[in-house]
Structure formats: structure tokens, C-alpha cells
Design brief:
Layout lengths: L28 E4 L4 H11 L6 E5 L2 E5 L3 H20 L5 E2 L5 E3 L4 E3 L3 E4 L3 H4 L15 E5 L9 H7 L3 E6 L2 E8 L2 E5 L10 H11 L4 H16 L4
Parallel strand pairs: 8-9
Antiparallel strand pairs: 1-3, 2-3, 2-6, 4-7, 5-6, 7-8, 9-10, 10-11
Length: 231
């Protein structure tokens, strides 16, 4: 149950507090402390299937973030890049978007910007509801990190067991792989070894300047060239 000390803000972007309140990031992000697991689950239930806000919970710390268009554009572009790679490389994939990933026994939960089952796709194929105490965590996560004030989600994903993270921050895409319980930066994707983080960064930059169809053609042709496949 919610304790008397827990004060939950509205999930729509509020005005920054005049003083003494919790830290806001441009009206889009707030981090609260001392929040119970029951309160976190109640907020998830209240939001239902709405994606107006994303929640991240780590042992009493709760981040509430309302995605902006600047946040969603790189997320969509990277997700599309992953789907095109999977199609061109004949790799089975299941995209679950920003579905809630949580484990009560760990008191950790969050909603990634995008998540994918790739190596483990066959294990969860056809399942409509996942239980991360028995089902594997998504193999690949996209995280758009706009500010340094956001809750560090790497320890949450590490405990859940996600193998690979793609993080977009400061106009760069970086790849991280789970190694001995911690994420280590790598140059090549584990799921798609043909792709490096520098090439992903380049494609993401081009997605903002090229028409969408021209960008898709360029991505497909690059993959075919990398594989040595003729047009």
C-alpha cells in the first residue's frame, strides 16, 4: 500500500516546481525516492496500455518520463534499422515496443524505448503475456538518453538479463553487451555483427535529412553490399 510519505505527481508534463520539489528535466522527467513496489504497480495499472508516460523503478527510486518528439524520432529510426537488418539478414525477430519489463522479486521494472527478442525469439513466440521469472528478457534494448539526470537503467537491464543495449546519447549510438553482470561497450552489435555503432550513428543522422523511402533504400543497399549480394 502507498505510505503517507509517498506523493505521486501527475503523469502529464507538470510545471517545474518553484522550490524544494523534486528535480524536473524540462517538464518531461521526474525522479522520486522512497516509493513502494505497490505504488509503482498501481501507477502501471492506472496508465493501462497508454504510452503517455514511461516508468522506471529500481528498489524505491521511481522515474516518470513523458517522451518528447525529439525522444521518439531516434527511437523509431533505430527500431526501423533493426527490423530492416533482420529482414535482409533472414533473422527471426519479435518487437515488443515499450512493453513493461518487471520482476517483483528484484524490485526492478521499466519500460524501454524499444525492445526486441532475436536470439530468444523462438522461446517466446506466440506468448501474449511474459513472466520474466521464467521467460528470458528481451535480447536487445534501445534506450534514448537525452539527459545525464535520468535514472541509470543499466543495472536494471543487467539484473533482468538483457544481452545487448543500444544507447543514443549526445548524437551518438553506442552498443553495450552484458559481460559478467555489467555492460561493456563494444563496436559491433552481437545480434547483427555486420553493424558497428559508428555506422548506426551515421544512419541515424541521415534519417533526419533524407526522405524516409530514400533512407530505407540506402539502408537496404548498404546491408546487401556488406553481405556481397547483388542488386
Amino acid at each position: 500500500m502507498q505510505t503517507p510519505s509517498e506523493t505521486i505527481p501527475p503523469v502529464q508534463p507538470p510545471e517545474p516546481p518553484s522550490g524544494g520539489g523534486p528535480p524536473f528535466d524540462g517538464g518531461h522527467r521526474i525522479i522520486l525516492h522512497g516509493i513502494s513496489w505497490e505504488t509503482y504497480e498501481r501507477l502501471l495499472d492506472d496508465m493501462g496500455d497508454s504510452h503517455a508516460a514511461h516508468f522506471a523503478y529500481d528498489q524505491g527510486e521511481l522515474e516518470i518520463m513523458v517522451p518528447s518528439e525529439e525522444h521518439e524520432e531516434p527511437n523509431r529510426a533505430l527500431a526501423t534499422l533493426i527490423e530492416v537488418l533482420a529482414e535482409e539478414l533472414n533473422i527471426d525477430l519479435r518487437r515488443l515496443g515499450s512493453t513493461t519489463l518487471k520482476r517483483k522479486d528484484l524490485h526492478k521494472g521499466l519500460e524501454p524505448d524499444s525492445c526486441f527478442y532475436i536470439q530468444s525469439e523462438a522461446q517466446i513466440r506466440g506468448k501474449k503475456k511474459l513472466d520474466l521469472t521464467v521467460d528470458p528478457a528481451p535480447d536487445l534494448i534501445i534506450e534514448i538518453d537525452e539527459t545525464s539526470s535520468s535514472l541509470n537503467k543499466f543495472p536494471i537491464y543487467a539484473k533482468l538479463g538483457t544481452l545487448e543495449l543500444w544507447r543514443y546519447k549526445n548524437n551518438q549510438v553506442k552498443f553495450f553487451v552484458l559481460t559478467d553482470g555489467q555492460y561493456v561497450e563494444v563496436e559491433n552489435s552481437i545480434a547483427f555483427p555486420v553493424l558497428t555503432s559508428s555506422i548506426a550513428t551515421q544512419f541515424l543522422a541521415e534519417s533526419t535529412t533524407l526522405p524516409s523511402t530514400a533512407w530505407l533504400r540506402r539502408v537496404r543497399q548498404w546491408i546487401r553490399d556488406a553481405r556481397g549480394v547483388e542488386k
